[in-house]
Specification:
mainly beta; 73 strands; 7-stranded parallel β-sheet; elongated; 5-stranded antiparallel β-sheet; about 10% helix
């Protein structure tokens, strides 16, 4: 948002921020879907909010933007959810009140209300209801006159600008019109300087001037203010009955008296109105073209025609007025067809040559698809709910292109009064080349596309007056330089140089000296250098930046992430009058990874970070609602071959693994197009499997049949039913599948050996309230299904909670009931949270006691860390996030302190990072743009030994760079635990024990012990100097089975344990494997044997 302040007085105005002390603004949380306001009592249906209003003695609460529609929004900020808390008197504690309301669960924003003072605002009582004048920036246009110094918009040092209003009739002695009614002093027979006399609401023609003579020789006798063409003609265009009210309303749009503390304002301010009665009964404009010609003959500069019909028209009258008399003719484009919808039919006189044809826009700068458009339309102007004058000295709201036209006519007159030496063609060009684009110009209505059908844009009288006279400056680019880590991103604890690129809009005046000054009241930063000087000026259509000069800003280390509001005042010119503009600039304080975010894509699948192409660097992959799968590398570069395009939404989180044992990884995912896709790391399609249901949950990869290849297991939904599929990489069904469960499944399966019998099992949950376990042959296992109390929208998780070698099943339903089942389906324990469990369930040893906790969140707004043995939350938990969550918590040691952190989020976009004890991680919570409807991922994208947090939102991919060394604790770092998306905890269990004693002098690796082994084996590694240590397990075909350790290590003697499990946490088959140990340039390989 920009606020333009033009200073034309002898001294430069210094502006200070002000705010009201008897009111402030709040925003009602989007989760409050049933929020209602009782306007009579000034209270709501929200008990907590009403209690707070009573406690602080608030007078009432009322809607701020009364005309905001439900569709009016900024991202996820809906304008109709802003409300004003009003007090009966000024409050000295207003800032404390503002902060205190943020403690309410229903409030997400609370802020003081700035008193925005345009340099001139008319004092007419209905000014704030006249949205049209604000949209066309009439208030800024008025400021081009020194009103307080005695200048009046629309008046000139010599002569006057007159607008002829050829209409049905006019209540010309209306108190808000009378002073702007044109007086024909050529008929002032007594020479007293007026042809009218009267006061208040009673005016008449001066009887001393009524002589029955055409004193000025214009062909009209005693035409003091205009003419009446009906009944043979007379000199009084007054209305004879209430059926002729149209012209009065039109005249008020042209030039109702402005700044007179009465009624309405007008764009014309003080330009004169020459009224004509052109209708016998009010049903038709019988003498419209007579009115056009008479107005031209009597000396009108601009003629308004808020009437017309489809077809016909008299071009000759128009040409005479335009070419002979030099008039500008403005006409309404028409109000659409008889069906009430927009048409593109020829309409006259608006469609005739030398006529400015004006169609109508609405309060939201929109085109409502009721007014006429077409190639003959020249521009658009406000035409809905227009407050203007009415009969009998009254006011009313009018609707139609009849009112778009006089607003434009008044604007043309105002421009001409500023540039009286211009021709009619030059004034028209200034109007038409300085309109504003609005989005519906590229839209469509029932009649077809609106492109090229609404003219050059929407009227902007300020631009029409200012273009080429003053510059039009704005900040076009902001650059952050010399931040501490040189990534171009402003982080907490950094000083940054901020450089601006300032642009001057095409068609406006050159400027020869520019100074930008930045201020901010935000306590998260301090501005060390607040001034940038552009000594060389900025030409029209050009831009400028400085090579050396810059703002210098420091952000405190504990500063909360998010936008920091600043105000930049830009002053141009070397002498008065100066040009000034204030630009609200948000400085982004963030942890964004260099090259990110990726915007303008809606993501509801969970991203994955892994080295898919085995080049030693991680990549990020995700599916989006545009039907594409995206891949990105370091610095935000797209992965070669991506995006890959499916035929519908991809909300199925991607699984990655070598499904065909060719040594290369594949990406596997489902889509709303009923297909399961297998593509290569280069985005090439390898196989597609079609079935009749959509695939929303992630597929899981697991060797079901022991052939060494990964099978693909996935669920579907087809209306109220669904199936469980297991297929080979070539698209063939695994024997026993699909298993016809015939129940809807929105989430993917969990896969693991439940009972430690060497056969892989599959666990699924359904919308029919059931938990199923099936074996690798598609048979439902004994003890299943287990029926719950509600449907499941959260995938099951498998983990060996009690350490007996079998896996427990963890599942949460839409009633908030968390089940923990033994492998045979019998109940171990339950936990009732009272509201939906969503997003995902993870497990981790958060308090380092050797026992796993269960982590989850959902619609109860909490992130839980629950011990299934004590049946209690860990101390410090749960944490109230204040709103619903669709995100499964994930864990990692972000700061290498030996404890896990928890990463969670709420749907509205707030990210929480919490230490193991529930205390907040520095810089968090933080808000991301868009909503978060999937679980994030954790990984090291740029190999800097820091973790990145990867979020998919409805506005793009966000990658946050944690600025501390990472730890290597076992944790749950992504949706479904691993890249195979098996939902099983226990991949690469790691035990590292550093022995005491002197440091080794060379690199050594012991034989593993025991060997053969079951269930685990150990090796001792001696490291002589600090190096990167990588310990991995491969099968005889060279495929990576597990990564035991991968991190920097100090010199010492270490013991590492391999538990005989692959990287998904599943036991490997009996056989011979290789353990490879790399330390710097040292390499060691040895065979190990696993026996069952």
């Amino acid at each position: 948002m920009k606020k333009y302040i033009l200073t034309f007085t002898a001294t430069l105005n210094i502006l200070f921020a002000e705010f009201y002390t008897d009111r402030f603004l709040v925003y009602i949380n989007n989760s409050e879907t049933n929020f209602m306001l009782n306007e009579e009592i000034g209270r709501t249906n929200h008990k907590e909010l009403n209690q707070k209003l009573d406690d602080v003695s608030a007078l009432n609460i009322h809607q701020w933007l009364f005309n905001a529609r439900a569709t009016d929004r900024d991202g996820d900020i809906y304008l109709n959810r802003y409300y004003v808390v009003q007090f009966a008197e000024n409050r000295q504690d207003i800032e404390w009140l503002v902060k205190s309301f943020l403690e309410l669960s229903c409030i997400t924003q609370s802020e003081t209300m700035t008193i925005n003072r345009p340099t001139y605002v008319p004092n007419d009582t209905r000014w704030n209801q006249q949205y049209g004048l604000h949209i066309i920036e009439a208030d800024l246009a008025y400021d081009l006159w020194d009103i307080e110094g005695g200048e009046i918009p629309g008046q000139m040092s010599e002569g006057e600008i007159v607008v002829g209003v050829a209409d049905d009739a006019c209540d010309w002695d209306h108190p808000d019109l009378i002073q702007n009614i044109w007086q024909n002093l050529g008929e002032d027979a007594d020479g007293d300087g007026t042809v009218l006399e009267g006061q208040g609401n009673s005016w008449d023609f001066d009887p001393q001037d009524i002589n029955g003579i055409d004193d000025d020789g214009d062909g009209y006798v005693d035409n003091f203010i205009g003419w009446d063409f009906t009944g043979g003609g007379d000199n009084d265009p007054i209305y004879p009955s209430s059926s002729l009210s149209h012209g009065t309303s039109v005249a008020g749009c042209v030039s109702s008296m402005t700044n007179n503390s009465t009624g309405v304002a007008s764009v014309g301010w003080s330009v004169k109105i020459m009224p004509f009665r052109c209708s016998d009964s009010g049903q038709y404009i019988d003498y419209g073209y007579n009115g056009i010609l008479a107005a031209a003959q009597m000396g009108a500069n601009v003629i308004n025609c808020s009437w017309g019909g489809f077809g016909g028209g008299n071009q000759s009258v128009i040409n005479t007025a335009y070419n002979t008399y030099g008039c500008i003719v403005v006409a309404s484009a028409g109000n659409g067809g008889s069906d009430g919808n927009t048409n593109f039919d020829f309409h006259s006189p608006s469609g005739l040559t030398n006529v400015l044809s004006v169609t109508a826009t609405g309060p939201n700068d929109n085109f409502g698809c009721w007014a006429t458009g077409g190639e003959t339309v020249d521009l658009s102007a406000p035409g809905e709910n227009i407050w203007t004058t009415n009969l009998g000295g009254g006011y009313g709201s009018a609707w139609g292109t009849s009112f778009s036209s006089p607003i434009t006519a008044g604007a043309a007159a105002l421009v001409w009064s500023r540039f009286p030496s211009m021709t009619n063609a030059q004034v028209e060009e200034r109007i038409l080349t300085n309109t504003d684009y609005f989005s519906d110009m590229d839209g469509e209505c029932q009649a077809g596309s609106l492109e090229g059908m609404l003219g050059t844009g929407r009227l902007n009288v300020y631009k029409a007056l200012s273009a080429g006279v003053f510059p039009s400056l704005d900040i076009s680019e902001v650059n952050y330089l010399n931040d501490s880590d040189q990534d171009g991103v402003f982080n907490p604890g950094e000083s940054v140089k901020i450089k601006l690129v300032i642009a001057n809009e095409e068609g406006w005046a050159d400027t020869d000296y520019v100074v930008a000054t930045m201020t901010s009241d935000d306590e998260r930063i301090t501005i060390i250098d607040s001034v940038i000087t552009f000594p060389n000026g900025i030409p029209s259509g050009g831009s400028s930046f400085t090579l050396v000069d810059h703002f210098l800003v420091y952000a405190f280390e504990d500063a909360q992430l998010g936008d920091i509001p600043c105000l930049v005042q830009i002053q141009a010119g070397t002498e008065e009058p100066f040009y000034n503009i204030e630009v609200e600039l948000d400085i982004s304080l963030s942890l964004n990874q260099y090259g990110f975010p990726v915007d303008e894509v809606q993501i509801k699948s969970s991203p994955l970070i892994t080295d898919v192409d085995n080049n030693g660097l991680n990549e990020i992959f995700y599916g989006a609602d545009d039907g594409k799968v995206y891949g990105y590398m370091l610095a935000g570069y797209p992965q070669a071959g991506f995006p890959f395009e499916a035929e519908d939404n991809v909300r199925s989180s991607i699984a990655i693994g070598d499904v065909d044992s060719d040594g290369n990884n594949e990406l596997v995912f489902g889509s709303y197009d009923n297909r399961l896709y297998i593509i290569s790391a280069l985005g090439q399609q390898e196989a597609v499997y079609w079935q009749p249901g959509i695939i929303e949950g992630p597929p899981a990869l697991r060797d079901l049949d022991g052939d060494g290849d990964l099978e693909i297991i996935f669920t579907t939904q087809n209306g109220s039913s669904g199936d469980l599929f297991a297929i080979h990489h070539n698209g063939e069904d695994v024997a026993g599948f699909p298993a016809e469960i015939d129940e809807k499944m929105r989430v993917g399966p969990a896969v693991g050996d439940l009972d430690d019998d060497g056969v892989v099992d599959i666990v699924i949950v359904t919308w029919d309230d059931n938990i199923y376990a099936l074996d690798a042959f598609g048979n439902i296992k004994s003890g299943f299904p287990v029926t719950s109390t509600n449907r499941f929208n959260c995938a099951p998780t498998l983990a060996d909670l009690d350490g007996n070698g079998t896996l427990e099943i963890i599942a949460g339903n839409d009633s908030g009931l968390l089940h923990v089942l033994f492998h045979d389906g019998s109940e171990m324990v339950t936990f009732d949270t009272g509201d939906d469990i969503r997003g995902g369930i993870s497990v981790s040893d958060l308090n380092n006691d050797g026992s796993l906790e269960i982590l989850f969140s959902g619609y109860d707004d909490m992130v839980h860390v629950w011990n299934p043995f004590s049946e209690e939350e860990l101390e410090g938990w749960p944490i109230d996030m204040g709103s619903n969550s669709l995100t499964g918590p994930i864990t990692a040691d972000l700061d290498n302190d030996g404890d896990l952190e928890v990463i969670a989020a709420i749907k509205s976009g707030t990210v929480y990072v919490l230490h193991h004890d529930g205390s907040p991680f520095s810089g968090f919570p933080a808000n991301l743009p868009g909503t978060i409807e999937s679980t994030p991922a954790i990984g090291d994208l740029d190999e800097d030994n820091n973790y990145e947090l990867i979020f998919g939102t409805t506005q793009g991919l966000q990658v946050l760079d944690i600025k501390s060394d990472k730890g290597d604790l076992e944790s749950w770092k992504m949706h479904r635990s691993n890249a195979y998306r098996t939902g099983t905890y226990g991949a690469s269990f790691l035990s590292i024990n550093q022995n005491n004693g002197s440091l080794p002098k060379e690199f050594k690796v012991s034989s593993n012990y025991p060997n053969p082994f079951n269930p685990s084996t150990k090796i001792d590694v001696e490291i002589a100097k600090r190096s990167h240590l990588d310990i991995s397990v491969f099968d005889l075909n060279g495929r990576l089975i597990s990564n035991i350790y991968n991190n920097n290590q100090l010199p010492g003697v270490y013991t590492f344990t391999w538990s005989g499990k692959d990287k998904t946490g599943q036991p490997v088959s009996s056989g011979v494997y290789f353990i490879q140990v790399k330390s710097g340039s040292n390499l060691h390989n040895q065979k190990v044997a696993f026996m069952k």
